[in-house]
Automatic annotation (TrEMBL), chain A:
It comes from Kitasatospora aureofaciens (Streptomyces aureofaciens). This is Dipeptide/oligopeptide/nickel ABC transporter ATP-binding protein. InterPro entries: AAA+_ATPase, ABC_transp_ATP-bind, ABC_transporter-like_ATP-bd, ABC_transporter-like_CS, Oligopep_ABC_C, P-loop_NTPase. GO terms for biological process: peptide transport; transmembrane transport. The keyword Aminoacyl-tRNA synthetase does not apply. Pfam families: ABC_tran, oligo_HPY. GO terms for molecular function: ATP binding; ATP hydrolysis activity. SUPFAM superfamilies: P-loop containing nucleoside triphosphate hydrolases (SSF52540). Keywords: ATP-binding, Nucleotide-binding, Transport. Belongs to the ABC transporter superfamily. Residues 18-264 form the ABC transporter domain.
Automatic annotation (TrEMBL), chain C:
One of its GO terms (biological process) is transmembrane transport. It comes from the Bacteria. It is found in: Cell membrane. One of its GO terms (cellular component) is plasma membrane. It is a multi-pass membrane protein. The chain crosses the membrane at residues 12-37, 92-118, 130-148, 154-172, 203-223, 259-279. Residues 88-279 form the ABC transmembrane type-1 domain. This is Peptide ABC transporter permease. Keywords: Cell membrane, Membrane, Transmembrane, Transmembrane helix, Transport. Belongs to the binding-protein-dependent transport system permease family. It comes from Kitasatospora aureofaciens. The lineage of its organism: Bacteria, Bacillati, Actinomycetota, Actinomycetes, Kitasatosporales.
UniProtKB/TrEMBL annotation, chain D:
This is ABC transporter domain-containing protein. It is a peripheral membrane protein. GO terms for molecular function: ATP binding; ATP hydrolysis activity. It comes from Kitasatospora aureofaciens (Streptomyces aureofaciens). GO terms for cellular component: plasma membrane. GO terms for biological process: peptide transport. It is found in: Cell membrane. Transmembrane segments: none annotated. Pfam families: ABC_tran (PF00005), oligo_HPY (PF08352).
From TrEMBL, chain E:
It is found in: Cell membrane. It comes from Kitasatospora aureofaciens. Residues 110-319 form the ABC transmembrane type-1 domain. Its main location: membrane. This is ABC transporter permease. Keywords: Cell membrane, Membrane, Transmembrane, Transmembrane helix, Transport. GO terms for biological process: transmembrane transport. GO terms for cellular component: plasma membrane.
């Protein structure tokens, strides 16, 4: 994979900031009255990713495919079952909480629900101070300054979260994440809970902050439009694994995985004429249960191209073009 | 109210038949004759089994007279009252029709020695020759040699000392006959074999005892029991207020009911102000004396002045009020009640028995305990026990003595205060002789030589050599009248030391249903109704 | 503070609040009140009762008179008013302290169980289940009667608090479980917060609402239980008065001297009711969802 | 022919919130009317007002359905209309299905509320409807409970329930918002087919401009309880008259077309 | 499912074991000596030792506890020889105060407790749930406020207070009912009912208040559910909407508390039975406590706890039947 990285135009000369390899997370699943152990969900099933400095990696996929779990593993809110998470030359996977603490300054997170990610009992000032306090640091910038950075007013500092709108609350969450001047911010669907107009504001804000502080983002979303807007590179997940990664433009112009293809064609376009004329690939069936994933290629149950090979053998990610990797036996685009 | 035991419905004629109901707030602790040593159980058991002698079925002091029951007379002493011979009446039968023999009496007494059957009176063990080492028929089937049954109708007791009133002692349930083949050991308690007018139909402890007629009981052999109702149903463990109110209302079956225990203080007002109710109230005299026991071995109670101060301070009237006021009895001024024929003058008098805190304070000051005297009172955790304890607390409080109350579960009360290491400073107690007279009272309660670490009756732990010498002297007196007079003097002698402060001579005001006849309080059963004489009018 | 404003804006809650405040005042001012009324909770007044009638108070309605504003107890003639106000002191104090104890225990253990989950939760959760399935009244009585000599008031507080904490613990555990999964806790963890900080700074402040509600709701429960235990004969020991004990002694008298039974009974009822109304109101005020008035 | 006409609709809640304020709508038989707008613009309230399902609210204005004035109808008549002639599907299909009853029961229940039909017959209708909305193995799945279905399947169940009585009007309140894009595509496809087959008019409520573009004939843009713009889909999308509509269209990041450096936004920071 | 049941039963047994051990331990902390209770007034030191031997009190606490547990599963014999006391299976101890096996005492008291609990439960369910439902449907109305005030009043009334006021009114003053007594239903149905009316009302007043409040809360909750809106949108008659879609889910939590309450009551309504003097398990407990009859206290505690624990189990199983979400996976 090192070769791929070298080929990556942005990260060519520098080593990646975050490098995730073969990450696996299994959860035990208990069921019903009996709380019987029904098995294990492989929420994340061998994910490998890299994020370079100043880069934004978009991670898209449908509900339940394991995006949030990836985010939680990287921020070590969950302990991985196996695999490695190299960040700033350390493998986070095995570290304990104490050893992690200093590293956390460089690795922050923005959450999906702006309200539930803010402690309702704390004022904005307390929330922001928490960033320093938990690291055992003295605040190096007042809350007002942090708020100003995300476009809020100084007067907001002494209010409680419920006194804000969703967009404002998400800005507070972003301010908190940025307080320690991290290198990488993992954003788990930061705009899905927001109204369309507010969504645009937050996307713009994230972009501005990236330019200003040279941040890297791991930007998780199921909304392809938002991902396209903010990402430089995009990874598509399906049922716990990455099926395709590509530069933004490549992915939208020439998707190689049948799933990516279907996904793109399913996004409704706000243009009646295009909608009327467009070729639609409507996938049949639902996402299979991660408790009992299909053999071989995870996507084969819904794939038009699937054959015995797909059922027998799980395709590995392979590079098919500059900056494009796909895990498919029959990619739409061949190298 | 006055002495003599008023008899409600005395002139009404009781007829044979019907179901008599008895409402009791207590439980019948033991029906097994070997273990039966509580007045209410004794009263009830007189319906079920017979003893060699028994008390006369009569109101007032006449009831204190011991008369022959199974025996033809009240016993024939010989060998200076060390040997007692009884002859059984012919024709007395058990419930299965077999005749009652002297062997059944012998066996019944032998049973009382068994450790499995505790709680009975101590007399057999104390008096019967060889009794100290006999372990009862279960361990020692050979029996006790000092009880002889030379033929079916003769039983001879050999005592280890002269006992003048052994004839009275054999009125106790422990002298009831028990056929050996009917002995079920510990479980005999719930179904003793009947020799009296009734046998047990069913018994549910703390709930109900149902007695039905014993057809093999021959009234001709029994001069005491009337055996009028066909059935006697005794409801147990009822609430005092409920018993009172049911009898006050007196409706339905309750017209055929009587109370087992005296009315509660809360009902006194209602009963006394209603002539109709008052006419259904039977007040029986008793030979019970209630007193506050002062632990003479605890400091500073070993100082007689402190004890006398307590005797002065105690508000006897307040204590009586907790039991229902004047109707509950007369204020006690000495140890022996007038119902036993004694003079009663109070060495620690106060106006209306309300106590004299000033005298008490003076005595305390003299003893050097004018302040800071704190005593602990052991009291049963019953409503009455608590009320009395509070009254003691309040009245001693007036004399500057602060009293802490130690509540003890009612059932464990006597065994706790009878344990000399667990007993505290003060105990509310009392004594009712086993038969009228002082012989089962003063020598048992005030003889310091009898103090045991457990099962002690001398809660004052009073131990006076002078008194003990006197007790021995009286025991040797053969003439009952002389003995009675000597006991009177002994009582006064004890009172000087104030080991106890008597405060009440009980009376038992008992409600009976409108259709019940033959009700009177029996002096031997602490003034409660003599159940064997009760009957219904129609 | 908005909570209090919300509370006072409801008429029933304001009334309940006033009653509770009044009762607390009554309890605190008990010595003053008895001084004004010239009575004492322990002094016998033999002249106020008629021994000839079994100790029934002289005069109408349980002996209500200028000297004894709420009458006297039968038998011993103690002043009912004095006993009621001192009884309020005892009953309220026991209930409040038992609440404090159960809230402390319940919050601490519930928080730990809910937050950490796993075997800690299993152990604490099972303990709570166990205590909840105890026939606690029987057990309390057995326990209290088994420990003579100790101060009953203290014992009551301990026993009530001990058997009460699982009720608090269950609620706190549930809340803590939800909160622990909350994103703001995850956010604090990402910032490097220690477990202690998470518990104390992040989760705990969010429990004040539910804890306040269970606390308010459990006070009337404890008052009633204390009274019930006194009623069953294992309450506060004489001569200290408590309402339950007053009612218990009044039981045999309920037909002959109803006032004696009714006065402490009504006080008890009103107190419990007021606390219940207040508890409801606090819950509604803290729970924006409920428009249940 | 106009099926539904709403004139000057206003809804005021007891709390004083004026959720809808002078709204006009027109929907022709067999056509699809898209109602778009941001969260809180009053879309759902409007739909509930049409069905008379609002509680604690003051509804004024006219709601004319197939010539009948709904606001004037008594409760019985309104009830007979619900489900039978106007059906509704909601955003969150899980919470909209009762967890205690099998899906077939819930569909059959709707059928039996308006037809004299035995349990068996109603059940058969339910199974047929499940088949029609594309649920595999309908016989078996009919006896399943809502929690045993995926989100898309549940929405299919809701649609089956709504369509089992062949209503004239289907009000779909954000029918795909809770679903993934691929599933959304399936549901939209299903709605398209149903509309073609049954000729049911649809009032499609959504905040997704793309969904409207793909399905609706007419569109109404709502903002703060009012319609700010209305017209045929093409006109509104290609030549929006109102700045608000223009903003709404522009601020959504798209997967096609040029990529702006910054997205245009609607007004100030909120 | 069978496995689950077995596991639950094992847990239940474990809980009972712990309760048993805890209760047992308390009696070792208790200064009162069971032998002293059985020995009574005229008790000599030798006798007490003999009684202690018979009762096995001279063994270590642990081995006594072992004996106790053995007794439960296989019965036991106190003392030795011809006149030993046999306490057959299931031996929850033997009361030497009443000379009965505790189990026999419990079972003889159960009918009274059962009558009280079941009758009261029927009454409070009918009244409480109905009042709660109506209140929820007319939330905010005069009826609602009146019913909820009454419910709160019922909840706040101490049981013994209600009981005695009832008795004063119905028995002492109005003479409508006799004093409660135990009449078996089979021999005297009228007397049985008459004696049960007051305990029923007493308990029902408390619990109906609780249930009305809970029902109302749950009903409001379920009435606000989206599926109720769906049901209305389907055009179902309002009565069906309420009954089928609002009440049914609202009853689920009520099943839980009902199971627990009934379980607790079957284990004896301590205060009610004591006040009315009805010989149920609760009265047995009260009496045993006041007479320090420790084997009985221990037995009642265990007995009452088993009802609660079994009720718990039963509630869970009922849940599994009623709630498809729990039922399906398992
Ligand atoms: N703590 C957990 N225990 C058991 N299963 C879990 C846990 N967390 C996640 N899962 C399962 O793992 C899978 C992936 O979940 P995850 O939250 O990562 O998905 P996601 O892609 O973020 O979905 P969404 O778009 O809905 O946020 C899901 O099937 C989920 O049910
Ligand atoms: N029951 C109610 N009581 C009071 N206000 C309400 C109620 N229901 C809705 N509202 C208010 O009415 C307004 C419109 O709500 P509505 O649900 O119609 O919005 P919407 O356009 O459907 O939004 P969304 O896209 O979030 O579903 C909102 O401001 C909301 O707060
Ligand atoms: Mg997620
Ligand atoms: Mg809506």
């Amino acid at each position: 994979m090192d070769e791929d990285d070298q080929r990556d135009e942005r990260a060519a000369d520098r080593s990646p900031l975050l490098e995730v390899r073969n990450l696996v997370k299994r959860f035990p699943v208990r069921h019903g009255l009996t709380q019987r152990l029904a098995g294990h969900v492989a929420a994340v099933d061998g994910v490998s990713l890299t994020v370079g400095p100043g880069e934004t990696l978009g991670l898209v996929g449908e509900s339940g495919c394991g995006k949030s779990t990836v985010a939680k593993l990287i921020t070590r809110l969950e302990r991985p079952t196996s695999g490695s998470i190299h960040f700033a030359a350390r493998d986070l996977a095995g570290l304990n909480e104490t050893a992690l603490r200093p590293l956390r300054r460089d690795l922050q997170m923005v959450f999906q629900d702006p309200f539930s990610s803010l402690n309702p009992r704390h004022t904005v000032r307390q929330i922001l101070a928490g960033a320093y306090r938990y690291q055992g640091l003295e605040p190096d910038q007042p809350a007002e300054e942090l708020l100003a950075r995300v476009g809020l007013e100084a007067g907001h500092a002494d209010r409680h979260p419920h006194e804000f709108s969703g967009g404002q609350a998400q800005r507070i969450g972003i301010a908190r994440a940025l307080a320690l001047r991290p290198k990488l911010v993992v954003c788990d669907e930061p705009v899905s809970a927001l109204d369309v107009s507010v969504q645009a504001q937050i996307l713009n804000l994230l972009r501005d902050l990236q330019d200003e502080y040279g941040l890297s983002y791991l930007f998780i979303a199921h909304d392809l439009g938002a991902v396209r807007q903010i990402s430089t590179r995009i990874a598509v997940m399906y049922l716990g694994s990455v099926v395709e990664t590509a530069d933004r433009d490549t992915l939208f112009a020439q998707p190689a995985h049948p799933y990516t293809h279907a996904l793109l064609s399913a996004v409704p376009l706000p243009d009646p004429d295009l909608e009327a004329s467009r070729e639609r690939i409507v996938l049949h069936g639902d996402l299979p249960s991660p408790l009992d994933p299909p053999s071989g290629c995870r996507f084969r149950t819904r794939c038009l191209k699937a054959d015995e090979l797909c059922a027998a053998e799980r395709p590995q990610l392979r590079t098919i073009a500059l900056g494009q990797q796909v895990a498919c036996h029959y990619p739409e685009r061949t190298p | 109210t006055g002495g003599g035991g008023g008899a409600a419905g005395a002139n009404a004629v009781a007829v044979k038949g019907g179901t008599l109901h008895v409402l009791s707030t207590l439980d019948l602790e033991h029906l097994d004759p070997a273990r039966n040593y509580v007045t209410s159980s004794e009263d009830v058991s007189r319906l079920i089994y017979r003893t060699l002698t028994t008390f006369a079925a009569a109101p007032g002091q006449a009831g204190g007279k011991v008369v022959p029951d199974l025996a033809t007379d009240t016993g024939r002493p010989s060998d200076g009252a060390k040997t007692w011979t009884f002859t059984l009446k012919p024709g007395a039968k058990f419930e299965d029709g077999r005749p009652i023999t002297s062997r059944d009496v012998k066996y019944g007494v032998e049973r009382t020695f068994a450790a499995e059957l505790p709680e009975g009176p101590p007399y057999a063990r104390m008096w019967l020759a060889g009794g100290e080492s006999y372990k009862g028929p279960y361990k020692d089937p050979a029996g006790l040699a000092s009880i002889e049954a030379p033929d079916d109708s003769t039983v001879v007791f050999h005592l280890n000392r002269p006992v003048a009133d052994f004839g009275s002692a054999v009125s106790l349930p422990m002298f009831a006959p028990v056929p050996q083949d009917k002995d079920t050991g510990v479980t005999y308690d719930s179904r003793p074999f009947s020799s009296g007018p009734y046998k047990i139909d069913s018994f549910d402890p703390k709930k109900r005892l149902t007695l039905v007629r014993n057809t093999n009981w021959d009234p001709a052999t029994d001069t005491v029991r009337k055996g009028l109702p066909d059935k006697v149903v005794i409801d147990l463990g009822l609430d005092t207020a409920v018993v009172d109110q049911r009898l006050i209302a007196g409706q339905g079956e309750d017209a055929n009911a009587v109370a087992m225990e005296p009315i509660g203080p809360a009902s006194v007002g209602r009963v006394l102000t209603d002539p109709q109710l008052k006419s259904r109230l039977v007040t029986g005299d008793s030979i019970n004396t209630r007193y506050l026991s002062i632990n003479t071995r605890h400091k500073p109670l070993d100082d007689v002045r402190v004890r006398q101060a307590i005797a002065y301070a105690l508000d006897k009237d307040a204590l009586r009020t907790t039991r229902g006021g004047p109707i509950a009895g007369d204020l006690a001024t000495s140890l022996l009640p007038p119902s036993l024929g004694y003079q009663t003058e109070d060495p620690y008098p106060s106006k209306d028995g309300r106590g004299d805190p000033d005298r008490a304070k003076a005595l305390l000051a003299e003893a050097g305990h004018a302040s800071d005297l704190t005593l602990t009172l052991d009291a049963p955790a019953s409503a009455a026990g608590k009320a009395q304890a509070e009254a003691v607390q309040a009245s001693l409080g007036r004399a500057g003595i602060s009293v802490k109350i130690n509540e003890i579960s009612s059932s464990a009360f006597y065994s706790t205060v009878g344990n000399t290491s667990q007993e505290h400073d003060l105990v509310i107690a009392g004594w009712s002789p086993d038969w009228p007279g002082a012989s089962t009272y003063l020598p048992i309660v005030f003889d310091g030589r009898l103090i045991t670490s457990q099962g002690n009756n001398d809660y004052a732990q009073y131990d006076s050599p002078a008194v003990e010498a006197q007790i021995d002297k009286i025991a040797a007196i053969g003439d009952p009248a002389a003995a009675q007079a000597a006991y009177g003097q002994l009582a006064q002698q004890i009172m000087q030391d104030a080991p106890v402060v008597p405060f009440l001579w009980d009376k038992a005001p008992i409600l009976v249903g409108g259709n019940v006849a033959g009700a009177y309080g029996h002096v031997a059963y602490v003034g409660r109704l003599d159940l064997v004489s009760l009957g219904l009018r129609k | 503070m908005t909570v209090i404003r919300k509370l006072v804006s409801q008429r029933s809650a304001a009334l309940a609040f006033a009653v509770v405040a009044g009762l607390v005042l009554l309890a605190v001012a008990a010595p003053l009140i008895t001084w004004i009324a010239g009575s004492s909770p322990t002094a016998f007044h033999g002249d106020a009762v008629d021994p000839g009638l079994g100790g029934l108070p002289r005069g109408a309605a349980g002996g209500i008179s200028a000297r004894h504003w709420l009458g006297v107890e039968p038998v011993n003639g103690r002043d009912v008013l004095a006993r009621v106000v001192y009884g309020a002191q005892v009953s309220l104090l026991i209930a409040v302290l038992a609440t404090v104890l159960s809230v402390l225990l319940g919050t601490a253990l519930g928080l730990v169980a809910g937050f950490f989950g796993g075997w800690v939760d299993t152990v604490i959760g099972r303990t709570m289940d166990l205590l909840l399935s105890f026939p606690s009244l029987i057990f309390m009585i057995a326990l209290i009667s088994a420990a003579p000599g100790t101060d009953r008031r203290l014992l009551l507080v301990v026993v009530l608090g001990f058997f009460g904490w699982p009720y608090v613990g269950r609620i706190v555990r549930g809340q803590a479980m939800v909160l622990a999964r909350g994103e703001f806790v995850a956010a604090a963890r990402v910032l490097g917060a220690s477990r202690r900080a998470l518990l104390v700074r992040e989760v705990l402040p969010n429990l004040t609402g539910p804890v306040l509600v269970v606390a308010t709701m459990s006070i009337p429960g404890y008052i009633a239980t204390e009274a019930g235990l006194s009623f069953l004969g294992v309450g506060v020991q004489a001569p200290t008065p408590s309402w339950g004990q007053m009612i218990a002694t009044a039981v045999p008298w309920y037909a002959s001297d109803p006032a004696y039974f009714l006065i402490p009974g009504v006080f008890l009822f009103v107190t419990v009711l007021a606390f219940n109304v207040l508890g409801d109101a606090v819950r509604d005020a803290l729970d924006p969802r409920s428009q249940r008035r | 022919m106009t099926l539904l006409t709403v004139r000057d609709l206003a809804v005021e809640f007891r709390s004083g919130v004026r959720a809808v304020d002078g709204l006009d709508l027109d929907l022709d038989t067999g056509r699809v009317l898209g109602v778009v707008g941001e969260s809180g613009s009053g879309k759902s309230v409007t739909s509930l007002a049409v069905l008379g399902l609002l509680r604690d609210a003051q509804v004024s204005g006219e709601i004319r359905f197939d010539g009948q004035e709904l606001t004037a109808l008594d409760r019985r008549a309104l009830r007979r209309l619900r489900g039978n002639r106007i059906a509704m599907i909601f955003q969150d299909p899980l919470s909209c299905l009762n967890p205690y009853y099998s899906v077939a029961f819930q569909i059959a229940e709707a059928y039996r509320a308006h037809h004299r039909a035995g349990r068996k017959q109603a059940h058969r209708v339910a199974v047929r409807m499940l088949d029609r909305v594309g649920i595999p193995e309908p016989e078996r799945r009919a006896r399943c409970y809502p929690h045993e279905f995926s989100g898309g399947m549940r929405q299919r169940v809701m649609i089956a329930m709504a369509l089992c009585l062949e209503p004239d009007l289907l009000i779909a309140d954000e029918p795909t918002t809770a679903l993934d894009v691929t599933v959304q595509a399936q549901i939209l496809q299903l709605l398209r087919e149903l509309r073609e087959e049954a000729g049911t008019a649809i009032m499609l409520i959504t905040h997704d401009m793309g969904v409207v573009a793909g399905l609706a004939d007419q569109v109404v843009v709502m903002h703060q309880g009012r319609a700010v713009e209305r017209g045929p889909v093409r006109d509104v999308f290609h030549r929006p008259q109102e700045p608000y509509t223009r903003g709404l269209l522009a601020c959504v990041p798209r997967i096609d077309g040029p990529l702006p450096d910054r997205l245009p936004t609607l007004g100030a920071i909120t | 499912m069978i496995l689950y049941l077995l596991r639950r039963l094992a847990v239940t047994a474990a809980i009972l074991l712990v309760i048993c051990a805890a209760t047992f331990a308390i009696f070792y902390l208790m200064p009162a000596d069971p032998a002293q209770g059985a020995c009574g007034k005229a008790c000599s030191p030798e006798r007490i030792t003999e009684i202690r031997t018979t009762l096995g009190l001279n063994h270590s606490p642990l081995s006594q506890f072992g004996d106790y547990l053995t007794g439960i599963v296989s019965g036991r014999t106190y003392g030795t020889g011809e006149h030993a006391v046999n306490c057959p299976f299931p031996c929850l101890g033997f009361s030497f105060q009443t000379n009965q096996p505790v189990w026999q005492m419990l079972t003889s008291r159960l009918p009274a407790s059962f009558s009280i609990a079941v009758g009261a439960a029927v009454l409070w369910l009918a009244v409480g749930v109905a009042a709660g439902v109506v209140s929820a449907l007319r939330c905010g109305s005069l009826w609602d406020r009146a019913a909820m005030t009454a419910a709160l009043g019922g909840v706040s009334l101490p049981i013994y207070f209600t009981a005695l006021v009832l008795q004063y009114l119905l028995v002492v003053q109005l003479d409508l009912l006799p004093y409660p007594q135990v009449e078996p239903l089979t021999t005297d149905p009228v007397g049985w009912a008459q004696s049960m009316v007051m305990p029923w009302i007493t308990l029902a007043m408390l619990y109906a208040g609780i249930y009305a409040r809970v029902t109302r809360g749950e009903m409001l909750e379920s009435l606000g559910q989206n599926y109720v809106r769906t049901a209305r949108a389907k055009g179902l008659p309002e009565i069906t909407v309420v009954r089928r879609h609002a009440l049914r889910p609202a009853l689920m939590p009520i099943v839980t508390i009902f199971g627990m309450d009934l379980g607790a009551l079957l284990g004896g309504a301590l205060i009610t039975e004591s006040v009315f003097g009805l010989p149920g398990v609760g009265k047995l407990a009260a009496d045993a406590i006041s007479s320090a009859d420790q084997p009985v206290i221990l037995g009642v505690t265990l007995f009452a706890a088993s009802f609660v624990v079994l009720a718990n189990l039963l509630v869970d199983l009922v849940y599994a039947v009623l709630d498809p979400r729990v039922r399906a996976v398992g």
